[in-house]
Every structure is written in C-alpha cells, then in structure tokens.
C-alpha cells in the first residue's frame, strides 16, 4: 500500500511540476482549438496510421489544432495556408527541436535531426548545405544515371524483387555520395541490413507516444530502459566510424577515393568545428536517412503508376514523343517532360512520406489569426492532412497529376508541397533525392508497363512506413522494348549526360 501511495505521489508531483513549466503566452490569446481528450492521458493516437486520426480532427476542428500528450501540449498544422504562414514565413522561430529523449538515445545526441537550434546546428547545417547545394548535387547526375541503369537491368532480370533493386540503387548512391564507395551495394549487404534495421527503429521513435521516456524523461537514467535504442546506436556508430576510418586510411595511403561528403568533413574538420564523434555521425546520418527516404519515394511513384494505368499511359506517351524508344531518357530531357514531373509530385502528395511530420519547437510566441502558440511549444506539420487540403488540392483523394500543370502545359510554380520539410529544417539532400526519384521514374516508365497483380493483396500506404522490402505491392513489369533491344540500349546508355 505504501508503494502504491508513493508512486501516486510521484506521479502527482511530476504533473504539478509539468504544469508549472508548461509553455504560456503573455498575449492573452488562446491556443488553437482542441478535440475532446482523456482527462489524465490526453489525446489517444493509435500506434499505426495515427495520421488518419489527426486528419479527421483537422477536418472537424480546423486547420490548426492543439492536442495533449500527457502534460505536454502539441500544436498540429493541417492545412496548406497555415503551414506557409506559420512554418515557412515564421520559420526562424520554428527551427528548434523539442527534447526527444528516445531520439537522443538512438543517436547518442549526435544527429543533426535531433539537434536543437544553436551554434552546433548551424555548423552541421552549413557543412551539409555546402556539399549538397544544387550545383554540387548536379555533379552526381552521371553517377545517378549509371546506377539507375542497373535498376532497369535488375528489374528486367527479376521483376518480383523490385523493392530490393530500388534499395540497392538508393544505398549505392548514398554510400558513394557519403563515403566515395566505388563498389556496387546490394540490399542484402550486412551494413545495409544493419542501417535499415536502425532506420526502422529510428522511425518508430518519431511516432507519437512510442516511448515512455519522451513523457517521463528520468527513464533514460535507468540502465535497463531502452536497450534496443542503445543497441541500435552502438551498431550504427560502428558502421559510421568504420566508413570514416576507411576514408582516413585511403587519404594516408594517397589513394584517390574521389569526392564525397565524408572526405569533405575530414578535410575541413577544424573549419567545420565538430568533435570527432560529430564528424563521424554527420555523413552517417545522411547515409542512413537518405537511403530509406529515396527508396520509399521511388517505390511510391512506381506503385502509383501501377494503381493508375491511365495516368501512367499519359506519361509514357510524353516519353515516346520526346525520347522515342531507340534511346533512354537522361537528365537532359527533364525540361521537356513536365507530365513526368507532375506525376511524381502527385504520387508524393497522394502517399506522402513522413505523414506525421517532424517535431519543431517555437523559440518565441507565434501569433496566427486569433490564436497564440507560446514559446517552447512543440509544433508538427501534418503532411498527410496538408496534402488533403481541399482548397489547394480539390478532390484530394483523387489521383490527378494535371493539378500540377498550368494552362500552357508546363509545371505550375504556385503549387508547393512540404514533402522535404519546412523552413530552416528542410532536408538538405532534397536536390540529390529529387534527381534520384526522377531518373529512376523516367527510366522505369520508359522501359516497362507497370500493372498490379490482381491475385495478390496491395498495401497502398505501406511505403509511408518505409518498412521495405516487405511492403505488399505486387507490381508486374512488362517490357515496352524487346528484351534484347532494351539490354543493348542499357549497355550503351550514357553515363555522362549529353545535351
């Protein structure tokens, strides 16, 4: 009985302290409206597909809502206009991250994604942007075409395993950019398996309420708590350190490993101003997150093509007109293929990546319309709800690539989506990722007709969870070019873009 009373007293004490330190505003304006909740527990979100519940709340209670997770209040933005006005136009005061203890445990506090705003974040961000700005990312186009050619040949040889083929492309590309690795990478390589396992747990960390330590911070001091998080951190750290040590050895042996982000970090370690552990983890985070995101995006586009054959046919008609079937598309064709770009944009709106968004934290009060989001509040942009804003995307549940086109047949420049994040926290590798999605989509749409196998089940939200290669997505790839001719074209496919 004494134990029960003691625990109850502790819980009550924590609640009182949390209430005392809860973010408050001096403006006198209220927080955005809140759906009904359980008094003690706050709002209940299901462990899987919680974005659907959030979208229902947004539809009922308005474009911006407040929910409660334990004692913490979280503001969720679910409409396009509000996202622009809050997350973009006031991005300077939303660049911070809230304390995420589970995230700190799985990254050792070394990942830029969980680093709060400040000097350390600015140094990390500057290093990544310097190496991955648009002009720098453009230099990787020949490599991306070469690796995407392998995807086509792998699908031709074994179409049923297309998810692993896309994983192989993404991981080979990311390892080359991150560490200058010049050997092909397979989805079954031990380091790829380990990193994908790490990312699986990492994404669970981002799910609301997945780990009690985010509600009860002192749990992180218990040696038995979060063993899987600590284990995944150690596993990933060993991989990242070994990759950087390989680069160091190549440099000491005067071996030219080619340009890479890891090499840039090593050569500019003092200028960047990171500790050795931070320098090891920065390219590693890029390697881990970039591979999974690119894979999910490419597979989402392929799934959309199989689900909507009429829209696929329009893109293929454009490819036939611009490229023909006697050569394969390259980056030089991109400006002449607006329908393909529109299809990709619509696919990533239809089944958006990171549907719950990544948490931000306000460093100042944010005033929006007649509401105030106090400084110190966690803010989420619900990508799923925003992507279904009926004022911006009419008939949001209908797959319509034409919504991205203007009256002149080109791409609209007034329609945006936040698949890569917001403001100063936007994904620094977005230019590289966009090119990967585009060249793989262009080549696979040109080479194959994609259809669904009606005898097998389809999980059309599976790629949102990035749990590949186990997503139930039975795509049948039928060559549009005779087998021998396709292999011949791929054999001479230019590894250097020609205009």
TrEMBL record:
A GO MF label = monooxygenase activity
Q: In which pathway does it act?
A: Secondary metabolite biosynthesis
Residues reported in the UniProt entry to bind heme = 427
In terms of SUPFAM superfamilies, this protein maps to: Cytochrome P450
What cofactor(s) does the depicted protein rely on?
heme
Top-level taxon of the source organism: Eukaryota
Q: Which UniProt keywords apply?
A: Heme, Iron, Metal-binding, Monooxygenase, Oxidoreductase
Pfam families reported for this sequence: p450
Q: Where are the transmembrane segments?
A: none
Q: Which CDD domains match?
A: CYP64-like
InterPro entries, A to Z: Cyt_P450, Cyt_P450_E_grp-I, Cyt_P450_sf, Cytochrome_P450_fung
- Would you identify the family this protein belongs to, as annotated? Belongs to the cytochrome P450 family.
Name the UniProt record assigns to this protein:
Cytochrome P450
